[in-house]
Every structure is written in structure tokens, then in C-alpha cells.
Structure to design on (417 residues):
């Protein structure tokens, strides 16, 4: 795979939110305004690129059996750094993101890229992969944040757009609006994917999740009941 | 006393982990297809949330804060939770085999579950004391169970419904989750 392809892969073809369906929790939680999407997206991208670099460099040292705890510790370290930087320089964003900033630790996009890419590839492609995935994540969050903000508050990035024309529907910036807008975005991306001859996504991105084997077991048990 | 009850009820109704805080979305959308599975998985979550709170709260309040190392919160908590889940799994296997058979398979899933890390962090953003934190964890766990079991029922109905092709699978699941979350908005103002 060429370097450019590795980079663009995460933005459209394997968009982490709409195609791989990873990182659903922050996607639903912070997209009440477009600006939060940028804050969350950039924070996650920084953590993703840094952890990809560290894990790629350590890929021959970390024993296979303890790789998941090792990855989580590395990721948690970078999350702490980002958390302290945001707190010091962007207190407003820190307040808007709340606990979802430390929760980047358990964001499955980062762990999934460590598992699927960084622990098998050299540093430069891992950086590009992290950047591409991060940009794809950020772009989707901003798109969803803009839709919810426009419909729910009548503004985009805090600038009034629909003054007087459409009454803002508060429900779109409340939790149900998150589920609803995300459902429609997934449906839309499925339609576009099918037009391009790709398979639509029907479930969460379990194939990329580190706890997939446990989850699969649960599903089998529930189906045999 | 009424304060503790308020915290407990808020966790179930107005500040539901899944439906208003979006924590634990993976099991909510992934595992909740059968009511029985949803119930056992949630039981495991309640146990882990309670024990994690019992352990992480004093470590933060009485070790990290006096030492001026508050910034280590995230990294310490995730490691403690991961170790605790392993420990609970081993203890159940050794001393309570029937319970292990019922809940054991869900435990590894919970390590990377954002609901557990989320609730242990939330106690401090809400500035609760130790006892309040325990009730907060209990309420959040029961709220998780209510949402999981309710949604499993909804999904069983979706399976036999005639869904337009574009919405089949994940989109219709998310849209039904929106409607369930909408109904929970009706509880706004009841508590706290």
C-alpha cells in the first residue's frame, strides 16, 4: 500500500466512525456543537498519532500476551498529557468535553489502530495512518456537530444561521437527537457505499475491537438460550 | 438520606448512563439482543462498578490528592479497573463457580467499557463524598440494567418488523434508541 493510500484510507474509505463504526460513545456525546467536534477530534488525533508512534517503535519489544495492557498504559499516558495541555490552554474546551476527554483512553479507535496497524507496521506509515484516521474522525464529528447545532440551536460554530426562518428544535442537541442523527448518517453513508459497490455496515465495528472474542462468546451464549 | 435516594434515582432516570451520557454504547448496541443476556451482563456491570468505586475513590481522595498527583487519575484508574476485573474473575471462578458460569464471560468485556471508567471519574466532577459515590455507582449500574433490558425488548420487536432496506441493521437500532432516550426525557425534573 502506498503512503498516500495509507493516509487517505481513514478519511473516506475506512472512515472510523461511519465505515468502521468505532468510537461511538464520544461521537454521540460531544457532538452537541460543531466546535466540540473539533476539540474532541483534535485531542483524539494527537493521542492516536503519538500512541501509534510509540507502539510502532515498541512493536518488537512488547510481548504478545501482555500487549493490550501495555497499549492501554501507553495510550493513558498520552491522554494524560493531552488532558493537562487542554486544561492549561483551552479551559472552555475542557469544560465542554468534561469526562469525555479522559475517556479517550477507552476510545476503541485508538486501541483498534494500535492492534490492527501500529503493532505491525513501521513508524512512518503508522503516523500517516494515525493522521488519516484522526482527520476522518474529526471531520465526521464536525459534520454531525454542525447538523445537530443547526437543527437544535439554529447556529453553526456559534454563528446564527436560521434566525427567524426555522424554529430551533431543542431535541437535536439533547441525547435523543444524537442517536437519531447518527442513525440517519449511518443510513446515508450506507446508501453512498452501496452506490460505490461496497458493503453497507449493519453492526458495530466489532471486528476491530480488542474485546471481540469475549463479545462473540456472549452472543453465542445468548443465541443458544 | 433523601440526598442518597436522589442520587440513586437520578442515576436510573434522569442521568442514565447509556441514554443520557452515552457511556457503554458498545454492549447496548452489540449485546442487548436477548433480555436474559442483557440482564446478566448488566449484573456483571453493577458488580464491577461498585467494587471499582469502593477501591478507586479512596485511592484518589486519600493518596493522589494529598500527594499532589491528581493528574495521574486517568492512568491509575484504568489500570486498577483492569486489574480488579481480572481479580474478580479469578475469585468468582475459585469460590463461586455458579455465579462465574452466569457472569464470567461478560467480565473481560467490561475492562474496556467506558461506563465503568466514566462513573469512577464522574464521582469527582460531581464532588460527591464516599457514601454518595457508592450510591451514585449503584444508581448508574441499575440505570444501565434498565436501559439494557428495555432495549433488548425493543430489539426483539424490531427483528420481526418490516424495516425499509436503507434503515436495516444499525440505523434502525440507533433510531429506536433515540425514541427510548426521548421517553426518558419525560423524567426530567422528577429528581434532583
Amino acid at each position: 500500500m502506498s503512503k498516500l493510500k495509507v493516509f487517505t484510507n481513514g478519511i473516506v474509505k475506512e472512515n472510523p466512525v461511519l465505515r468502521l463504526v468505532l468510537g461511538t460513545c464520544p461521537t454521540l456525546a460531544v457532538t452537541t456543537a460543531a466546535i466540540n467536534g473539533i476539540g474532541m477530534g483534535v485531542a483524539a488525533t494527537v493521542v492516536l498519532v503519538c500512541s501509534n508512534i510509540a507502539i510502532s517503535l515498541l512493536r518488537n519489544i512488547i510481548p504478545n500476551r501482555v500487549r493490550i495492557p501495555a497499549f492501554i498504559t501507553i495510550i493513558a499516558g498520552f491522554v494524560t498529557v493531552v488532558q493537562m495541555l487542554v486544561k492549561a490552554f483551552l479551559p472552555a474546551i475542557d469544560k465542554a468535553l468534561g469526562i469525555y476527554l479522559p475517556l479517550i483512553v477507552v476510545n476503541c479507535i485508538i486501541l483498534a489502530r494500535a492492534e490492527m496497524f501500529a503493532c505491525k507496521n513501521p513508524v512512518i506509515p503508522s503516523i500517516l495512518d494515525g493522521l488519516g484516521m484522526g482527520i476522518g474522525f474529526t471531520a465526521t464529528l464536525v459534520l454531525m456537530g454542525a447538523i445537530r447545532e443547526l437543527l437544535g440551536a439554529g447556529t453553526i460554530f456559534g454563528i446564527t444561521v436560521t434566525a427567524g426562518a426555522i424554529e430551533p428544535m431543542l431535541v437535536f442537541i439533547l441525547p435523543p437527537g444524537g442517536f437519531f442523527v447518527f442513525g440517519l448518517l449511518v443510513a446515508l453513508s450506507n446508501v453512498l457505499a452501496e452506490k460505490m459497490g461496497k458493503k453497507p455496515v449493519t453492526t458495530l465495528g466489532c471486528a476491530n475491537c480488542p474485546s471481540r472474542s469475549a463479545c462473540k462468546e456472549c452472543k453465542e451464549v445468548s443465541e443458544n438460550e | 438520606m433523601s440526598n442518597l435516594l436522589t442520587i440513586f434515582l437520578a442515576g436510573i432516570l434522569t442521568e442514565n448512563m447509556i441514554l443520557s451520557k452515552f457511556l457503554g454504547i458498545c454492549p447496548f448496541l452489540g449485546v442487548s439482543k436477548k433480555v436474559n443476556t442483557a440482564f446478566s451482563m448488566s449484573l456483571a456491570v453493577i458488580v464491577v462498578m461498585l467494587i471499582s468505586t469502593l477501591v478507586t475513590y479512596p485511592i484518589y481522595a486519600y493518596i493522589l490528592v494529598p500527594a499532589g498527583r491528581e493528574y495521574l487519575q486517568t492512568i491509575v484508574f484504568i489500570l486498577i479497573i483492569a486489574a480488579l476485573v481480572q481479580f474478580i474473575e479469578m475469585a468468582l471462578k475459585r469460590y463461586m463457580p455458579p455465579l462465574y458460569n452466569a457472569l464470567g464471560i461478560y467480565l473481560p468485556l467490561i475492562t474496556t467499557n467506558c461506563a465503568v471508567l466514566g462513573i469512577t471519574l464522574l464521582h469527582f466532577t460531581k464532588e460527591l463524598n464516599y457514601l454518595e459515590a457508592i450510591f451514585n455507582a449503584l444508581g448508574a449500574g441499575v440505570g444501565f440494567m434498565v436501559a439494557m433490558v428495555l432495549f433488548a425488548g425493543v430489539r426483539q420487536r424490531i427483528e420481526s418488523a418490516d424495516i425499509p432496506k436503507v434503515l436495516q441493521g444499525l440505523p434502525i437500532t440507533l433510531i429506536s434508541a433515540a425514541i427510548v432516550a426521548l421517553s426518558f426525557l419525560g423524567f426530567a425534573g422528577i429528581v434532583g
